[in-house]
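Let's sit down with a protein and look at its sequence and fold side by side. Which protein we use is up to you, so please pick one and set it down. Label the sequence line and the structure token line clearly, so we can match residues to local backbone shapes. Go ahead whenever you are ready, and we will take it from there:

***
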Amino acid sequence: MKEIKISESNEVLYTFNTSTNLPVYMWVNDKKKNTYMGLGVKYGSAGTNFKCNGIKYNVPTGIAHYLEHIKFYLNDCDASELFTDLGCDSNAYTSFKETVFEVYANDNIYDAAKLLLDFVYNDYFSKQIVENERGVIIEEANSGKDNPEYEFHINFLKNYFLKSNFKNSVIGTEKDISEISLEDIKLVYDFFYRPENMFLVITGNFDPKKMEEEILKNESKRIIKAVGDIKVIDEIETDELKTNSFEVKSLNCKNTKAKLTIKTSLKTFKGYKKEEVLVALRALCSAKYGSSSDFYESLMQSNLVTDFYTYVSYDAGVVSIEFNYCSQKDKKVKELILESLKSLMIDNEELNRFKKYANSRYIMKFDNIYGVAASIIYNLVENDTPQFSEMSFINSLTTKKVNDIYRKVKINNYLYGLLKPKNK
């Protein structure tokens, strides 16, 4: 077992690999009563096109989510019932990039870890299971049609992403779900549910040495057949948008919500790493649009909004700056945002304040075993490392760097979406 010093803190990660080459990462907090375990698969809804040993494959959208559902079926029971018998809760989620099976444990921690591995590695599938779950997932997909927030989100994806599979919902459409076959399920499982494409993250109150011993013993007899080199194929996005605006009206919507999202290709930020771009823009948005900013206070005091926040992210080759708000004067707020973007700059006082805020939040994160696990999982999926690199980049920021990065943002290249109430 090796130790990894978490940067910008006194915290330590314990790590080891099993005989099957599954990486395990553990962070201990003996002040907590609970333990969290997340077995992650680096395969999500965007991975519908891939190749293995030079042969290309295509599967229906939604298959990652479908597989997450039926994975809980075992040949004689439901895996969630076995976790309940151990006094544990189990769950799972699928995103564009990964699928994670989760366990929340108070008792029988080491047995729960072994069960988590055993049930995810179990390759029991049948046509009956696939058919039984199809209706459930179709119902889940169709339920979104009655949810204005979901409908708004789907419209945003289709207008914002043109090339990448990020344009499709994680669940897929009813047509997508209807096309998924047992053969598709087995293909994806065999290619991606492999130890070298997975990881296990454990955080909370447990003995790391005993956990290592139990997992190594559990995995020592497992035999994994090689399949060859596998690579997901997904197109990188450009700055192009399908449209500059869209509108969704719904009877189930009570208040007007708006989302203004600026789209800039990562290639535009030449000379800077992705992490530098993200933390710089987050620092700027926090200083200029955060809850203590003059802009935010002006909107609130003028009763122009009832909710307002920004979000900076990266997906499929593009950096996004989102402005989300609720307002009956959405056009006025939009104008104020666009005008403010023209002369945005951060000064030393604002940057130092952001650094102090970020550092305090970073330290407080280690009081939350789920927050620590989420950070490790994010870094493993995005950067192939468990390290918490964000604070290193934040502390290296200068006003010159932040302002130079912002000058490269294509502030006039945005998608504006509105979710409005529909009159009966």
